[in-house]
């Protein structure tokens, strides 16, 4: 927003910080409990950041709607209205993510188990920080706007000056807005107007709904066909712990033996008297002939 009062840069930054705090708390707790840290865990912060920022947008959108509904209400009622709208969506999202990753802890691969433990715990902390830390930041930012304070310096902005005699850039950076005083109520966001007036009526048309059903059916059929074509193609070294003997084994195997092609093995499926010298000689002769 081109307003030194309504600018929410710090609000967005604190939303990202909330995700970062969740990652630090999760990693610290898991390391304290002795859960091994493997290279795949390094991907967890990106997942947490995506969900945390999504929760942040939900909270901000609910807060803005509460402001439009109850412009003269106190902070307590505004925050209550915000949580009543946003908390359900945030809770369902977190529960499904946590459930999915904690189910992954049942796997037999230690590295996958560690990744799921780190990430699932981080989702729990992300939910906690969103409903506590970020909710407090919303209230502080609201009090700053109510006091007509600058978004960067938090110094009270003088709104009594005549904006017509100043440039638009000066008004946006030092007074509050190019077009109106910051004390006036703000209208709906253009994106909200677009979805309500144009996109909503478009997708609820009966022909568009029929087309959506057909497209989803085609998508579902393609997805089922794709699942039948999936083939395993995973690098096994990525599923081992960092200090596992498996990693140097696969590295040496690829370095020294990859040019010889696949390994050929001979399996004896019957019971053999290995104590009998003649049997041992016969096995050795078979191996020599095969070589």
UniProtKB/TrEMBL annotation:
A cellular-component GO term for this protein: membrane
Keywords linked to the UniProt accession: Glycoprotein, Membrane, Transmembrane, Transmembrane helix
Keyword Isomerase included in the entry's annotation: no
Membrane topology: Multi-pass membrane protein
Localization: Membrane
Transmembrane intervals: 9-38, 44-63, 86-109, 115-140, 207-226
InterPro entries reported for this sequence: Patched_domain-protein, PTHD_SSD, SSD
Pfam families in the record: Patched
UniProt KW Transmembrane helix keyword: yes
Record Gene3D superfamilies: Multidrug efflux transporter AcrB transmembrane domain
Family: Belongs to the patched family.
Designated name of the protein: PTHD3 protein
Species of the source: Brachypodius melanocephalos (black-headed bulbul)
Lineage, highest ranks first: Eukaryota, Metazoa, Chordata, Craniata, Vertebrata
Gene name linked to the record: Ptchd3
């Amino acid at each position: 927003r081109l307003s030194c009062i309504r600018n929410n840069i710090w609000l967005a930054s604190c939303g990202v910080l909330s995700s970062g705090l969740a990652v630090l708390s999760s990693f610290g707790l898991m390391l304290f409990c002795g859960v091994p840290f493997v290279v795949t865990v390094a991907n967890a912060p990106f997942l947490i950041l995506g969900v945390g920022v999504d929760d942040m947008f939900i909270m901000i959108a609910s807060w803005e709607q509460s402001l439009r509904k109850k412009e003269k209400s106190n902070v307590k009622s505004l925050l209550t209205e915000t949580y009543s709208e946003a908390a359900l969506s945030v809770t369902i999202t977190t529960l499904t993510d946590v459930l999915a990753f904690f189910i992954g802890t049942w796997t037999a691969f230690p590295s996958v188990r560690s990744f799921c433990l780190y990430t699932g715990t981080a989702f729990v902390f992300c939910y906690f920080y969103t409903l506590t830390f970020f909710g407090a930041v919303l209230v502080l930012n609201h009090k700053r706007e109510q006091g007509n304070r600058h978004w960067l310096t938090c110094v009270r902005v003088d709104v009594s000056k005549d904006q017509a005699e100043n440039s638009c850039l000066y008004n946006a950076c030092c007074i509050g807005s190019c077009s109106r005083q910051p004390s006036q109520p703000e209208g709906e966001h253009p994106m909200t107007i677009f979805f309500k007036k144009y996109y909503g009526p478009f997708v609820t048309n009966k022909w568009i709904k029929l087309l959506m059903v057909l497209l989803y059916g085609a998508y579902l059929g393609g997805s089922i066909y794709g699942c039948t074509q999936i083939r395993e193609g995973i690098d096994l070294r990525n599923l081992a712990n960092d200090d596992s003997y498996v990693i140097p084994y696969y590295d040496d195997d690829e370095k020294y033996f990859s040019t010889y092609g696949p390994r050929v093995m001979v399996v004896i499926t019957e019971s053999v008297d290995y104590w009998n010298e003649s049997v041992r000689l016969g096995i050795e002769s078979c191996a020599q002939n095969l070589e």
